[in-house]
Amino acid sequence: MTNSERTNARYDFGELPIWKGVQSRPGYQAAGFALKLHPSGHATQASPQTQSLMHEAYAKAEYTFITNPPGASPWANRIGDAYFKRFDQMRPVFNNSRVVEIGAGSAYIAKHALQAYDIDSYTIVDPAVRESSDDPRLTVLHDYFHPETFPVESFDWALSFNCLEHVPDALSFLHTVQAALKPMGMLFFVFPDIEEQFARGDVGALLHEHISYFTRDSAERLFVQAGFSVEMIDSRADELTVLARKCAVQATPGRVDMAHAIGGTDLLPASFDHMTRNVATYREKIRADLHSGRKVAFQGANNGLNNFLFMTGLGDSTNLAIFDGDQSKAGRFLGCSPHFIRHSEDPFYKDMDSVYVTASTFFPEIRKFLVAQHGIADSAIQSVFGTPSRSSSI
Q1: In contact, 174 and 247? CB cutoff 8 Å
Q2: How would you classify the pairing of strands 11-17 and 30-37?
Q3: What are the CA-CA distances from residue 139 to residues 82, 114, 129, 134 (Å)?
Q4: How are beta strands 43-45 and 212-213 bridged, if at all?
Q5: Residue 58 — very low, low, confident or very high, per pLDDT cuts 50/70/90?
Q6: What's the distance, Cα to Cα, between the start and end of the chain in Å?
Q7: 56 Cβ neighbours under 8 A, 6+ residues apart
Q8: Is 333 a domain residue?
Q9: Which CATH number does the domain housing residue 317 bear?
């Protein structure tokens, strides 16, 4: 297959339910989902209509976050604290700096940074942030990050956590960030790493709100194309962390070999086939369990399980329960199942005969917890979407 053929190929999953996080009642809206390769070397959604739909939804007052931002729940705070610790461990020269955080979701990390460092100013740019602050150094701008939003060379630091995957054109977005930074300004971004998830056949990686999909190599290439020198790039728990500096002279990007664009030869078609096989294989396994009268538990009330239930039609099955470690999800619902979500410590877990883990990124620690907490046999616990080869610690 030539570069041109790879770029023009579409990998169509048909319709998938639009993930809106857990809900007060079941119900969903489905929309088409297809992926293709972007000329810059990462994967991207193939439907402009879907991109436009998500862009409009995010700016609405009734928008619900697909994942709770830090400050919304203990689990979300754990993630936010991990991000801040990850940043702080790099010993950033942060004092007397002008900082912009793009797509923050909340002011949680901003308030931590303002307490920890002597920052001149901290600006949040996000149309969905609804918080305000009495700290005169903190400004919340309810908007998207546009080229005309700020004068060039306005900031010393640009921070962003789980935002890059949402923007319609990742390269143009990074060019805008680069222009807004002062000479030698720094960038610290965290966003999904899909390489292992795609290789494992994890349909949880597929979200309508995620427009772009990156591996370590494709992400590093993109930041260089946008005029940054990548000083550190790390992958853990299916996330990429990038520390980069604005280049004095922008490098001229080389030609991208699409055969190796997003992580290994033809990862995108291979992962499409793997996802399809995974869903079919576990549909039959779970149907057999239910048919024999076994009580089935799913661990991980997330987008992956919602996609799986939609694709298999298993959501309405009896003798089925859904569990999650985030207490804020308890008593709520996935869009594709009438079964309410139970907390992972619920004693009802002891009645389960088979456990299928859909939060595959954290499978090792989930298995350890279930064996210790509920006495579930190790042999009764399976990961629907494989197991991570890297650390699952956030």
Answers
A1: no
A2: antiparallel
A3: 24, 12, 11, 10
A4: antiparallel
A5: low
A6: 38
A7: none
A8: yes
A9: 3.40.50.720
β-strand partners of 141: 125
Structural domain span for residue 368:
268-383
The number of folded domains in the chain is 1
The verdict on residue 243 lying in a domain is no
Residue 333, SS3 per DSSP? strand
Q: What is the pLDDT of residues 301-323, one digit of tens each?
A: 999 999 999 999 999 999 999 99
What is the number of residues in the chain? Answer: 394
| 86 part of a folded domain | no
Alpha carbon distance 297, 321 (integer Å): 5
Q: What is the largest CA-CA distance in the chain?
A: 66
State residue 355 phi and psi, 5-degree precision: -120, 125
Candidates 18, 16, 19, 22; CA nearest to 325 is 22
pTM of the model: 0.86
CB 269 within 8 A of CB 10: no
Token pair in block for residue 40: 């810059």
Residue-level pLDDT at 165: 95
Asked whether the beta carbons of 43 and 269 are under 8 A apart, the reply is no
Residue 363 lies in a domain: yes
How far, in whole angstroms, is CA 235 from its chain's centroid? 13
